[in-house]
Amino acid sequence: MVSMDSCRLLLRRAFGQAGYTLIETLVVMTILVVVIGALADGFTSASKTQTDQTARADDQESARQALDRLRKDIHCASAAQSGANAQGGYTLNLTVNPGYCVAVTAGSGAGVLNSDGVQWCTVPIGTSGTRFGLYRTIVHACDAADAVFQVDYVTQGNVWTMACGANSSHLQAVVIDLPVNRDIATRPGRTYELTDRISLRNDTASTGATYCQNT
């Protein structure tokens, strides 16, 4: 003889009404929470990585474009001079004859000894001492307020030094060292550094620049 409880059990199974116990439900919910949490962490990490890579790529592209512009200005110059500025960075003065190069616009008083030319400068951003902005201008004073911004997260203020050619003409050159890293404190190995030695093509070929004559 079939008992009443057995009949109820058979009916529940027949009509698909069997349910989970409370313990089973809690176990399933716990597993779902763990899985969803892991997926969320992975998505957040991937999003941060993508944002970081995009920012680094933008910084590197800005540095390359700035170096290309520096090459044009320095190649066109007939004299160069560098020194510390009032903002806490360094300024590069380039004397440029307005008629020499079509691609370079020179401003009055921006060159060496207030001659016509172009100025580049670095200006500290914040107080870390490892973050500078790079600017370009054709006016007399190069600063963050009036000059055209070029690159951020430059890790040193003095990115250019003067040099002289080894040949008999002693033509002046500018040595560029442009390191960029937006997280220099925790990830110094990610520094993107551009270097170059750029000659002043309009320096006096017969005698060389005054800087090189005295070197």
Q: What general outline do the C-alpha atoms trace?
A: rod-shaped
Q: What is the β-strand count? A: 8
Average pLDDT confidence is 83
Question: Any low-confidence stretches, pLDDT <50, length ≥5?
Answer: none
Sheet of most strands: 5 strands, antiparallel
Strand proportion:
25-35%
Strand order of the largest sheet: 1-2-3-4-5
Overall domain count: 1
Number of helices: 3
Q: If you compute it from the alpha carbons, what radius of gyration comes out, rounded to the nearest whole angstrom?
A: 32 Å
Q: Whole-Å distance between the termini? A: 117 Å
Derived from helix and strand composition plus strand pairing, the structural class reads alpha+beta
SSE pattern, N- to C-terminal: HHEEEEEEEEH
Helix content: 25-40%
Describe this structure in words.
With 215 residues, this protein is α+β, with helices and mostly antiparallel strands. The protein has one domain (40-213). The protein is 33% helix and 26% strand. The strands form two sheets. Strands 1-2-3-4-5 form a five-stranded antiparallel sheet, covered by helices on one side. Strands 6-7-8 form a three-stranded antiparallel sheet, with helices on one face. Strand 6 and strand 7 form a beta hairpin.
Key traits:
alpha+beta; 3 helices; five-stranded antiparallel beta sheet; 215 residues; three-stranded antiparallel beta sheet
Task: Please give the structural blueprint.
Elements: H1 4-14, H2 22-76, E1 79-84, E2 90-95, E3 117-124, E4 132-137, E5 148-154, E6 160-164, E7 172-180, E8 192-199, H3 210-213
Antiparallel strand pairs: 1-2, 2-3, 3-4, 4-5, 6-7, 7-8
